[in-house]
Every structure is written in structure tokens, then in C-alpha cells.
């Protein structure tokens, strides 16, 4: 997995933060929850990338 994947994962996380902020600002609980889910997906993917990188360096 390369830099493109890492950037994509970070973009998902940032998109989620934006959705969460928008949901909070507009009292849209659905959008806020969707943003939190997007952030969690991005974080999980990034964690997987870190594990893969750790095994590659050994």
C-alpha cells in the first residue's frame, strides 16, 4: 500500500470531521453520526496501513 492509500484514508477522516462539524452546526444528528463513522473508517484504515508498514520494515 502506498502513499495514495494513506492520502485517501486521511481524506476520509477529514471528510468525516467536516460532516460531523456540519451536523453539529445544523443540529443534524444523522449527518453528525455519519461523520463520526467516516472518521472511524479512516482511522481504522490508517491503523491497518501502519501495521503493514511495521511488517515491511522488519
TrEMBL record:
Compositionally skewed regions (Basic and acidic residues) per UniProt: 1-39, 47-58
Domain CsbD-like: 5-57
Ranges annotated as spanning the membrane: none
Family annotation (InterPro entries): CsbD, YjbJ_sf
A Pfam family: CsbD
SUPFAM superfamilies named among the record's database cross-references: Hypothetical protein YjbJ
Annotated stretches, region: Disordered: 1-58
UniProt record similarity statement: Belongs to the UPF0337 (CsbD) family.
Record's protein name: Uncharacterized protein YjbJ (UPF0337 family)
Source organism: Nocardioides massiliensis
